[in-house]
## 1
Amino acid sequence: MIAGTHDGIGYPDSVFRTWAPPQGGILLSSPTPAEPVSLTIDDMPVHFYGMSWNPGASKPPFDEFNSNGAPGFHIAMLHGSLDAAANWELSSRDVPLKLASLQQTGMDYVALGHYHSVKIHPGRPTVAYCGNTEGKRFGEEGPRQFLHVVLEDGVDPIVTPVVCGERVMRDINVDLHNLSLESEHALVAHLKTLADKKDIVRFTLVGDPGIKLDIERLAAELASAFYHLEIRDKSSFLSDSSVLAARDEVSVRGQFVRRMLTLIEASTDDEEKLGLDAALREGFRAFGGEA
């Protein structure tokens, strides 16, 4: 195993100052890829190259090391940023790596960490991110996995993603306009069908529900149906009778509503419309409206 840039072994509060690998585990503690740790596994020599991030000691280039040429398999382990976009400003702490350089190292397999999605560059060496085994934030939806890698003489590594993880994160947009809701209870029943009890879920409500919604009450009624639940309310209430009635008022509130409706109708950007709608909602409430 290696220490990444978030838990570098040089940090005062690094986990590796108080935790040691279990029996049989080996931490590749060199601050740069150096001489490998060589093991014999099923009568086959296997050489592990790697680095653990150590601020002040880990310095680029991180991808210009080479196999020592010994018989057996050669595997590298690095926590870094592979072929980052040209407009990204990378520091040494980002451990910048180039695929072309890693392909010249003489490795059989290069295992990468840092990015949270699976990315496999086949060949010899195969260079691959396994992603993370549990979703860390919304945006990392669906089943997570690790990689099972088979090395054999004379052929490219065989890499197979294996689904794992206790929880699945789901970020779900719900268009209320298309549901033709008759009651908040009907919405609760519908949302319960969209994910499993073990899931970590975020519902984003969009569109016009046609009825008034109490988001706090909705979340409370749904809480037991999911392991964790968040609700983002981006719904529109432009057909709400109280808003439409206020539009015709000879008042500051009426002037505000008319102005906001004009801006919303003129906008051609969906995100802008959502922002204007939210502003209308908050303003209407501030004027004593019920929406």
Note: The mean pLDDT is 89.
## 2
Amino acid sequence: MHDMAYIYKKTIGEKPYYYLRVSKRVNGKQVVKDVAYLGDSVHEVERRLQNLKEFQAEIRKSYRNIRKFIQSNHYAEKVKKIKRDSHMGKVLQEKVEAARLHFNDHFLKQDQNTIQDTYKHFLIDFAFNTTSIEGNTITLKEAERLLREDILPKNKTLREVYDLQNTERAFFWTVDKSPAFNESLILKIHDMLMDNIDKRKGYRSHDIRVFRSRFDPAPAKYVKTDVNILFKSLQRWKKVLSPFALAAVFHHKLEKIHPFADGNGRTGRILLNYLLMRSGYPPLIIQKKRRGDYLDVLAKADAADLKNIGADHYVDLVEYLANELIDSYWSNFNI
């Protein structure tokens, strides 16, 4: 009996060819076989899949992954010529732009209730991951019950509960209010995230060391100055960086300044998503299971000073975030 089905794409030259592959267990081993040629375009793939009566059970079982493949490739084919991003590989850039195109041309044109429901589903996943990166021990299932049904998880601190609830409030506030992207926004988001968690709101008044970091945060007396320099630099960087790379660079620069006594990462990830959404991109999730990779690409960029935005420092971070966007987008917004 067949276990699952998926679509395999083979490229010869620049021409794609699509096949339906079926994976099944035979004598205790997993055997993979191409069972049908599906054509050389996503449109043809959809048509031929409907006529494959013999494998409908396997197709239905794997429908979500098949749909994800079809939609991502369909919109990749629709992406028009774009200016090459020096901070990202060509194929990866096209995949990011495919997600952006689907987000604007399909998702944002859905019924408002559908959009809000989808954002809520995304937010739960985002809140779980962004707080877990900082040590929150509430599980994804517990987070869903908390944020959907107000059911408090057992044996968890109120700080962890507020951590998730504050993240939800801050995310939807940025979506609903569309505030200006400026220094006041940084302070507002941090205040919201630290509500009932830490009274030390506003820029830190003392110098700090970040445990196991490879950089020295800005001295307290220079935090506000460095944040002002960062925002002034944004206007200049817009002329040379793609909107996606700009968001990635801003995220790192703010993390390196480390302007707050606590909540720097959580604030930075909310702001990263808001800057992406202001530029027409969907929000992304930096996954807790890849925390080590996330810290590594941030650390590689640490060699750049406050004004340096070179690709040699930032290509790894930009490509890491691009892959996180692609993964989280088609899993959450492919409705």
Note: DSSP finds 13 helices and three strands in the chain.
## 3
Amino acid sequence: MNYSKKVLNLLAKTLMVSLTLFAFASCSDDDNTIVPAENATITDVVVNNPNFSMLKTAVIKAGLSETLAGNGSFTVFAPDNDAFAASGISASDIENLSAETLKDILLYHTLASKVEASNVPAGPNAAFETVGGKSIYLTKNSAGVFVNGEKVKQADVKASNGVIHIITKVLMPPTGNLVATAQANENLSFLVAAVVRASEGTTNVAEVLSSAGPFTVFVPTNQAFINAGFPSVASIQAADPDVLASILTYHAVAARAFSSDLVNGAALPTLNGANITVGVGSTATVKGEGNNSPSNIVAVNIVATNGVVHVIDQVLLP
């Protein structure tokens, strides 16, 4: 199994966990504050702290122990054991991944320069290139510091060769654009069918969502399509492509917006030309102008090369 397939499998597993566990409330800091020993390297901090036992296993298997103990100045966004659990990744998952796959995932958490929390630009989604060559997006606002929309729960853990920020989820590197990301997940097969059918009309939706972007797409689950009157993929394939295109472009925003960027009451302009409205409280929602009730956002921050996906439980109607 190649690297992309393995990462997509983990993304699918993460999505399934999010569909059952996701709540929009910010993660509260716990009492497991890490205070490293004097002159400890990043590897020392990871290896010697029990809260990093799963990360330790991944670092050793990936062959990155010497790298993260070496000279240089690194920033590592480090998922602790709770973050692996919140991402639906078990110890056996780590054991089943190849060293190459783990290395690529871990390098997506690593910058080749020291970036403390105070140096994160104010505002949303400043792009930083990782050691692995792909971008992550840092945000600083009144709620704290976020990376790809995931909260930093302990910032600025000092090491002799850089700094560690402890995060609440594992960051999964993008493996394709928005369309490819949806195609790789069987839980979004109705959406994929809708994109294919819509692209047979006057608007090539697949081409739009495969372009440079960036976009944010609120993606309905298969059940959401069923609830909206599409009981099967065949029913989607029989629908008017221009009607589907109007609906699908109503789910896409021409900007990258992670969960940390969503503001209660914000009206987001869509590619359709009309607005959708965000609600943020004990849960997060998004509502179309033609919907009687808002849709719950049930999974967030699935990163693609040209944007980000949030999964919703209701089709948005213009």
Note: The longest strand covers residues 150-159.
## 4
Amino acid sequence: MNRYLGIDLGTSAVKALVLDESGRVLAKGSAGHPLAHPEVGWSEQSPGDWWQAVASASGQALARAGHSPLSGVAVSGQLNGLVLLDDRFEPVADALIWLDQRAVSEAADLNARYPELLRAAVVNPASAIYAGAKLLWLHRHRPELLERARHLLLAKDYINLRLTGELATDTSDASCTLLYDLRSDDWLPELLEAADVPLERLPPLHHSTDVIGRVTAAAAEATGIPRGTPVMAGAGDVTALSVGSGAIDEDVVSVTLGTAGHVVVASRNLTPAGYERIWQMRHAVPERYIRLGLVMSGGLSLAWFERELGAEERRQATVSGRDAYELLIARTASSEPGARGVLFLPFLEGAATPFQEPALRGAFINVASSHVKGDLVQAVLEGVAYNVRDCVTLFEELGSDLREVRLSEGGSRSDTWCQVVADVLRKPVVTMHEIDASALGAAMIAMAGVSPEPDALRRVVSTVVRTQAGRHFTPRTEAANVYDRAYGRYRQAAARLLAWAREGKGPTG
């Protein structure tokens, strides 16, 4: 039986899993890694810490699966983690990751200087998230680091370098940097020139399923991955989760309910009308693009509520052995669809899709003394689902014809939340047995990469998603009608909060 290792390098942890050729997950491992904030708005991580976490998580998964041979390995990783390496492949500084916001001014400058190029070639406006804006910041503020750097890599590419000794990236990860031309599928020299970075310092481009090298003896000793195992180019985490949830055709939308919520759909075409409204990038599947909507506080909204208002449930969980989140969601039995009039706006960390406003903040609205905790929990589940509906509505306005929702990550464990999503979207929802969609997608990319078949990734997705498909939820007409009305109130409230945020005021300003 062939086995494949998928590794996902996330913002706070690495997850690894072993997948067999039938699509069953045989074993998993995980390991955390630290995040540093040297100044307000800055976010950095050590590539060495990433590697240690990869070694630990991979070793756990392989030990639990039994150390039999692997047929392939692939890595997915957080987008826009910028790694600067010297001529010995050693980091010259910690990586600036996607969370880092120091390049706000540089992003504004790029939008002012290159509006037509960004619209036509990148198909996304610049923001501080992007590696291209971070490079310009380094050029202006830390030029000595760029002078020492001989190679620029993204997060998962550094792991691939440690695994194989080879410099490489894939088109999905590259297409999210501001440095990639989605028209020509190549690097974009004009934006590299803005930061005075020679083109030759960027790695060669590959498709996600290309074999870029094999596991070295040193990497095998560190990770437990057998020496000589083929390593694929891999993918950015958004692309990997779209593979892991089967979002490769235009009628399926993938929704994750992790800390943030990702709403992802495949498309055959780029759409200029999506500029400044959604993110667009390369898919791992040939001739496909990804449209991405982002819910900044997806599962984070419930986690925040549990942390601040879930002390009773935590005490009950300690006594009963049940999960505190399960007990908290059970409170919704005292509520009903529409949360008895309570609205929650899930903008605890600002808003991405569809408002693009980092200053926006969340709120409970229409709360009375007669409301109980179950109403507030119900409102949190619904508020996140309304923000998902914002994304899905926008995709449909841009031409997507969406028929089914694939739900994964932590929030998908809750039948109650899954049913709310189905009702709010008026679409059937299917959960995935394996909730770590990006790690699963990476393993699927590894499986396709060693296959001699043309279009192997499509066959792999069909096989694995069929095996991994879990619970089904059908939208309920009566509840959906209630949510249609409540969603209209949510949109009105969000517009009011958005106006306050852009005026520099709070709700009482």
Note: The mean pLDDT is 95.
